[in-house]
Write a structure and sequence with these properties.
It is built from no helices and 12 strands.
Length: 137
């Protein structure tokens, strides 16, 4: 398991303060553990927000990072006696820049146990988990 950091930075003076993010990944490559969607508020003096997700690579190799999709989130209006549903409004072409769109990460295969002696530790080891390294790309 490793952490995936999603940095969202607001540029300009868009009136929409709420954004919905959705993280999508090929199920054969990544397991997204926990919540994969959420709403962030871009308010106050800080134009940056960071979301941390737990992800687990499902196979070794050079894997593309999971994709992050952003939409404007328009909350439901509370009128007397009735409430509407929240709305999602997509951004126009060119309004969202994904700096990691073509990025890959190198996941090494699990280490194979050697035929030699074992360590004095009991309870097993994490040798069956893949190792994530930085990609040279």
């Amino acid at each position: 398991m490793c952490s995936m950091f999603v940095d969202i930075t607001k540029f300009g003076s868009d009136a929409h303060l709420s954004l919905m993010y959705e993280v999508r990944a090929d199920q054969h490559l990544w397991a997204i553990c926990g919540r994969s969607t959420g709403v962030v508020l871009m308010e106050g003096g800080n134009p940056c927000q960071q979301v941390v997700l737990d992800v687990m690579p499902m196979s070794p190799g050079f894997l593309p990072l999971p994709a992050v999709h952003l939409s404007r989130y328009i909350p439901a209006e509370q009128k007397s006696g009735s409430s509407s549903v929240p709305k999602l409004e997509p951004f126009n072409m060119g309004q969202v820049f994904n700096r990691s769109k073509a990025s890959q990460i190198h996941v090494l295969p699990p280490q194979q146990p050697s035929g030699g002696s074992t360590s004095g530790l009991s309870g097993g080891s994490n040798n069956s988990l893949p190792i994530v390294t930085d990609s040279p790309f």
